[in-house]
Design a protein that fits this description.
Blueprint lengths: L2 H36 L8 H8 L1 H10 L3 H18 L9 H9 L3 H10 L3
Amino acid sequence: KQWYQRRVRGLIHPKLDEQLLLAKKVQLIDALKELAMHEPNLDFLSPEYKDIVQNAEQLQAAFKMQPCHLERLYGMITDLYIDKFKFKGLNVKSKVPMLLEVLDNYELETLIDFFEISAV
């Protein structure tokens, strides 16, 4: 396997994982706040959800500080994907929507497999 591709994806992975997790937490804030308004006791929530409720303002602030960060990471990965195959003389732009679907349901190994299998 090509070590440089794995290395670049390995450098992007922590940032992408962090941004996706932050985005998911921010998406849950409104629903959890509404639940908190109607339920006096939130002991039934998981520790993760309690943390989201308690830190909602900080999460939203962090998300607003880097509004385009996730899109930039998607763009970098998409460019890497297209360039990898362009150097092999292949045009894979038609597969970009599938790549974006892989990114939306992100797991590192699935992304690596997509890069490797797409050549077939």
